Task: structure prediction
Amino acid sequence: MIGVFAGPAQRGDAADLAGLLGADAVVPDGPVKPAVRSLWPRLGAVVLFLDAATAVRLVAPLLRDKRSDPAVVCVDQHFVVALAGDADVFTRHVADLLNRTAVVTTGPSIDSMLDELVEQLDATADGDVAACTAAIEAGEKVVLRNPLNFPLPALPPNVVPGGEDATWVVVVDDKAAASKENVLRIVPRTLVVGVGSTRGASATSVGAALSELDATGGLDLRAIKAFATADSKADEPGIVDAVEDWGFWHGDTAELLTFPTEELAEIPVPNPSSVVRNSMGTASVAEAAAIKGAQSLGYGGPVELAAEKFKRDNVTVAAARVLPRGRLALVGLGPGAAQERTPRAEAEIRRAAFVVGTKEAIDAVSPLLRPGTEIRHEGACDLAAQGAAVAFVAFGTGPTLDIPVEADVIVVPGVWES
Result:
């Protein structure tokens, strides 16, 4: 819910803004102070038609944790000011709607960085994010290990790739590992699990075979992105129920991909079976389906077999990994003013380790750059091909590519005035 609060003299302006913000916005009746306090626990964002000093005095007693506080902005005749919470993007949005100047903080917070990293990688965080954040903010040495080479955003200078005597260790990986003190594991969803079974195998048997991927294969089951099997097994109750059980226990859902046996027969695998070939027309179900599923979700990127097949109780499972590639975001800045940029453009700039563009374009986005972001005026494609997270920025609708790039390419067009 977005709360838009104003005194009697500006209630009309507040109502107009609420209409522009959408169905989630409300303009409470009555005095501002009790209304804010009453609705505070339910609010995701707060707009106060008050001067900054009054707004600060009003919300200060209510603030608890910048990770959970709503985004708070205040509005006067000329400015929209970010006061609390993760409010920069919301501030610019409100300023754009009101045709006023946004006043935001100098850059994203570290806890926002960790939260965004988890979201960007479609990952699960295992460990105390708040304590790790506090260590980074305090300037303590934190080691970040990234064995699969995910394209990461710019990191604070005290977050380093290796060394001893670190206060915290952050590990970005899909491998199984026991929880340890002062270790934050970020588990991205990289795995496609192939499943084959005899007719009538139970969900318990499929689940027991899946556990082998953890116990023997050394993979974290929270990293599963999808399951895959032959299309003839699409309605096998044991497989279908096991996929649903996985979603229940992990608080998530995973798609069950199915493929014709003739397509699976074309996938080279390390452990083909003549028995399976004679009965199904393909030498592999679990390994071939895992690889085929990873290829379909990887959009042409590289994949690898992360765990060869395990067989248990007439169920066979294997896992393939979608390997990360560099990321190249082609970001349009529109006419150039902050209020004319889209929220998605700003998000892509924040997640980049390298920002490439003309001096004028870089100057326009400099308030968004994380500390440590490297600025370049050329070479965006080469950097992305080498595995980096790159934002290529330009005024107008944005830059274009004349050559193919071995990286994930994201187009974020800007809005250009006619």
Summary: DSSP finds 14 helices and 21 strands in the chain. The longest strand covers residues 303-312. The two ends are 34 Å apart (CA to CA). The chain has four domains: 2-103, 110-188, 191-322, 327-412.
